[in-house]
Design a protein that fits this description.
This protein has helices at 5-13, 18-38, 41-58, 68-87, 118-136, 139-150, 155-162, 166-187; strands spanning 96-97, 100-101. The chain is mainly α.
Amino acid sequence: MDVDPELVRAVQRGEAGAMDELIRVTYADVFALCRRLLGEPADAADATQEVYLRVIRGVVGFRSESAFGTWLHRVTVNVCATMLQRRGDVRARGQLAGAVPFAAPGAPDELAGEDDTEAGVVDRDQARRLAEAIARLPEDARAVVVLRDVDGLSTREVATVLGISEANVKVRLHRAHAKLRTLVAGRLGADGMEEAS
């Protein structure tokens, strides 16, 4: 999440419309991260609202020791982790938004094109299975996978967002990848087709 530092300073000074602009430029990213971590659209909407309540209360104290986007990522992950603990759902249910895993509101549905060839159907099905496997990961592993593999943060950025060491990020990511391979391999045969149960 890239946020103009001048916009953050304008929010901190209490300039009219600055907070609205900050929310406008970051909303899609915050909602998409909440959706990936929580799965349910209603939960993601609630979490997004809570994130912005915390931003409103905490932005004045933000000291620019790290990028604002990194701070916002951390707030978002913390809110989602709290919601997961509150609902007692360590595995977070289904992370599909329409036919596209990890879709943000208003994002184009890239996998659901008009060309519904066999390859497209297989690709959509594999993407669905991968999203389901990610949803089955424990909360800490899922957060590392989403931030590193889906959002594309560096190992250092993930460590900063989650408040853990870079070595811990690497260990969690390695274990999460192994678990994902097991989960996906358990459902997919060598040809990529789902095996009969």
